[in-house]
Automatic annotation (TrEMBL):
Its EC number is 2.7.13.3. The chain crosses the membrane at residues 6-30, 158-181. Gene3D superfamilies: 1.10.287.130, Histidine kinase-like ATPase, C-terminal domain. Residues 466-475 have a biased composition (Low complexity). SMART domains: HATPase_c, HisKA. It is found in: Membrane. The lineage of its organism: Bacteria, Pseudomonadati, Pseudomonadota, Alphaproteobacteria, Rhodobacterales. Residues 248-458 form the Histidine kinase domain. It comes from Rubellimicrobium rubrum. Keywords: Kinase, Membrane, Phosphoprotein, Transferase, Transmembrane, Transmembrane helix. This is histidine kinase.
Amino acid sequence: MLNSLSGRFLILTVAFVMLAEILIFVPSVARSRLNYLELRLEAAQIASLARVADDSLDESLERELLENAGVYNVVLRRDEFRQLALSSPIPAPIHATYDLRNATAMTVIRDALATLADPQRRIIRVIGSPVQEGGRLIEITLEQGPLRREMIEDGLRVLTLSAVITILTAGLLFLAVRVLLLRPINGVVGHMRAYAAAPEDARLIIEPTASVTELREAEEALRSMQTQLTGALRQRARLAQLGSAVAKISHDLRNILASAQLFADRLEETEDPLVRRMAPKIVASLSRAISLCESTLAFGRVEEPPPRLTRVPLAAIVSEIVDGERLAAGETDISFSENIPAGLTVRADGEQLYRVILNLVRNARQAISASGKPGEIGLSADEDDEAWWIFVTDTGPGLPPRAREHLFQAFQGGATKGGTGLGLAIASEIVQGHGGRLELRRSDVRGTEFAIRLPKENAQLAPLLPLEESPALEQTSPPAHPHGGTEAAE
C-alpha cells in the first residue's frame, strides 16, 4: 500500500497539509495571546471606572473587581498623572513587561512562543491603550499561568481542526488520484500485458482514450511503438517464410544447374570455333550460379562461408564482368570503362570478389537502363601502403533516399523498384569477411560511386559506420583515381 503511487501520494498530502497547519498554528496562538491580554485590559479599565465613580469602595469590593478582571493591579493614566486605580498584593516580582501599543506581528509571535515555552508561574506587566478614549494608557499586572493555559487550549483546538481537515483533504485527494490517474494507468498497464502476450495481434494495439494530457501522450506513444513492433514482427514472419521458400528453390535450382553444367562441359568438344570460345564462359557462369545458390542457402542459415584468400589478378575478374554486362546491356546506350593497373593482384577469394563487383556493376547498369538515358560505368583500382581500393562509378540517377538509409540491410535497401536489397547486403558481408569495408562514397544527380577497401593486413577492421561518422575514412582515405572517386566524394 505505502509503495503504491496512491499510498505515497496520500503520505505526501498528509505531510504537506500538516506543514501548512503548523505554519497556521504559530500565528493562531499569537492571536489568542493578544486577544486574551486585550480582554484583560478592557475588563481592568471597566473595573477602574467603578473606582473613579466611587472613591469610597471598601477593600472587599475592590478585590472582587480585580478578581473579575483577572489582574492584581490597574494603573490608569487619564491626563498627565499616573493613577493607581485598583491594587492588591502581588505574590511575586514582575518578570517581564509587554507594551501592546506599538507591537509588531513578529514581536507578538516572539512573545507568544516565549510564553508557551515558560511553564513557571510568572507575574507580568501589560501596557495598552484604553478603549473609547478612556485615557492615555492603561497598565495591568497579572499572572502568566492562565494566559498560557488559554493559549494551549486554543492551540489544541486549532490542531484538532487541522487534523480533521487533513484527513478529509487527504481522503478526497486519494480518491481523486485513484479515479483520475491510477485507473487510467492501470488500464495502460493492462493493455501492455495483453499486447505482450500476443504482440502479433493488431487488435490488441491500444486506442488512446485518456482525458489527461500526459496520459494521452503516453498512450499515443505506446500505440506508435506497438504499431511499429507489430509491423516488424509481421515482416519478420514474412521474411522467414520467404527465406524458407528461397532455400528450397535454391536447393532445387542448384541440382538443375549442376546437370546443365555437365551438358555444357560437352560443348568444349565441338568443332565450331565460336562455340569453343564461348563454352568456358558458359561453364564459368553455371559454376557461379551454383555457387550463388549455395551462398543463398548459407545466407538463409545466417552463414556466409569464410573466404579462401589467395592472390588473384583483379584485371581478369573485372574484364570478365564487363564482358558479361556488355552482353546484358544489349542495344542500350551504356558504355563501360576499365582502368585496372596491369599486374595488380589482391589477396581475396576470387569467386566472392567476383560476386561483389558484379553486384555493383549490375546495379549500376540496371539504374542507367531504368532512367532511359545514356550512361557510363567505370571500374578502376589503386593501392596504398595499407589497402587495395576498387572503385565502381556510374553516371546514373543516384540512389533514392530510402535506399541510402537502409543501404546494406537485406530486404530494405533495394535501389530499384521491386528490388530486395539482398545483393548489397551480401556484398557488404563478403567484404567484411575479408576484413574490409564497402562504402557508398557518393550518390547524387551526377551518379553513384562505391569503394571497396581490402586491407593488406590480416587485422579486422572496426564495424562499418556511416560515411560521415567513420573515423577510418578520414584516416585511410583512398588515393586519387582516374574516375575522380576522391574528388567526387568531396
